[in-house]
Structure formats: C-alpha cells, structure tokens
Design goal:
By secondary structure, the chain is mainly alpha-helical. The protein contains 14 helices and no strands. InterPro entries: Ankyrin_rpt, Ankyrin_rpt-contain_sf, Multifunctional_regulatory.
C-alpha cells in the first residue's frame, strides 16, 4: 500500500470514528437542499432516515454548510435532529478547514453562535488550522456582537495564541477600537507580551491612528481607548490630520 492509499484510508477511518458519513454532493441531494434553502425537502430526507451528519467532498458537514448559507431555519432543524456541532473537518486544504463554532463566530448572523452556546458549545473552541480560540476569529472578523456573546459565555478574554498575542493585541492591530474598548472594559490584560516582546500598548504605539479616518466612529472609539489609558493622541499620531 503506497502513501496516498494509506492517507485516504486513515481519513476514512477518522470520519467513521466520528460518526460522520462522507458523501459527495452528487451522490446525495441533501447538499442541494441546503444550497437552495429547501427546508421541506431536507426535513423529508432526514425524517426518512437520512444522515444529518453527511459531509461533502471538502469535508464540510451539513451543519457547517447551513451557516455558510446563512440559513438559521435549516441550522436549527439539523441540530434538533442529530447533527453534530463539534464535528471537525479533517479533509481538504488545512487552511480551509473550519469547525462549526469557528464559522458561527465569524458569521454576520449572531443567531448561529447564540444557539450553539446555549446548547453547550465550548466558547474556547480552537480553530482547525492555527489553533487560536474562536474569540480571536470573531475579533479579526470584526464582529462585536459575537465577541460579546463569546465573552458572556466564558471565553478566555486573555487567551494567548501560538504567537503570544491575546485578543486585544489583535483588536488593536486591525484598528477595531470598539472591540478593543469592550475587551479592556471586561478584563483584558495589557501586560501580556507576544513572542516579539510587544504588549497591547506597544502595539498601539506602533500603529497609532494610521488608517483611521478623522471624525469617523472608528476614530471616536480610538480616542476613547486612549483616554482610558491616559495617552495623549498627539504622542502616538501616525497620520497628519489637516
């Protein structure tokens, strides 16, 4: 048996051990039902004995695809009928592997995340590729509502990622000071340093107000953040405002 055959066999065994059946979209209409938001046909399929934990050729489960399609009705139905929310995609490009909680954390619709947290999903779930907590994903995706939901359900606000950064490091780096203010107000530790020796305040001083439009909501959040830290905006300004 060559390496390729062995790899395929191991993936197949892993999927079976998770209780998830791998079926290509062309072999089952359940995937097309989700794509077309056809809840009626999907209900008939599942209630007639169809597997609610099918995955497509990319390793995406029906539940994950429901979030991608922004279909909360189908998402709820699948969860109520045996879909596994802690399924991990182990197929395809590692950079494209998503867990259900990760996709929910970056969704525009906070309803997916709310439901998962209510039924016991771990707010500190790690993503499938870089192994950051999903709170990082919500921060980087600039989803304040999802950030607040995760924190309210116990997400570690000072979780340290593989490069030593915390969620507030990330919020400052992407210049989302609405989220940075929220994290600071809820216990973010400004003394934690990343692997390059930079604290969140060091990161703030490096970037300053670069890229933040004057008189915008973003700029107001930026000024509020500096005020809380007793930092004069002029001392770290990177942009000349005329």
């Amino acid at each position: 048996m060559n390496y390729t055959h062995l790899k395929v066999l191991l993936v197949a065994l892993l999927i079976v051990s998770c209780g998830v059946e791998s079926v290509a979209p062309s072999e089952n209409k359940a995937f097309s039902y989700i794509k077309s938001s056809d809840l009626g046909s999907l209900k008939k399929y599942v209630l007639d004995g169809g597997n609610p934990n099918l995955v497509d050729e990319n390793g995406n489960s029906l539940l994950l695809l429901a979030i991608m399609n922004n279909d909360l009705r189908i998402f709820k139905f699948l969860l109520e009928n045996g879909a596994t929310f802690n399924f991990r995609n182990e197929q395809g490009n590692p950079r494209e592997r998503l867990v259900v909680m990760e996709q929910a954390a970056i969704s525009e619709n906070e309803g997916f995340l709310q439901i998962l947290l209510e039924i016991g999903a771990d707010p500190n779930t790690l993503d499938s590729y870089l192994k950051y907590g999903v709170l990082f994903q919500a921060v980087v995706a600039t989803k304040p509502s999802n950030v607040k939901l995760l924190v309210s359900y116990g997400a570690d606000i000072n979780a340290v990622g593989p490069n030593g950064k915390t969620p507030i490091h990330s919020a400052i780096a992407i210049k989302n000071f609405e989220i940075a203010n929220y994290l600071l107000d809820n216990g973010a530790d400004l003394t934690i340093k990343d692997k390059w020796g930079n604290s969140p305040v060091d990161t703030l001083k490096m970037f300053g107000d670069a890229g933040i439009k004057l008189n915008s909501d973003h700029y107001e959040w930026y000024l509020k953040f500096l005020h809380k830290l007793d930092i004069d905006p002029q001392t770290i300004a990177k942009t000349r405002h005329n």
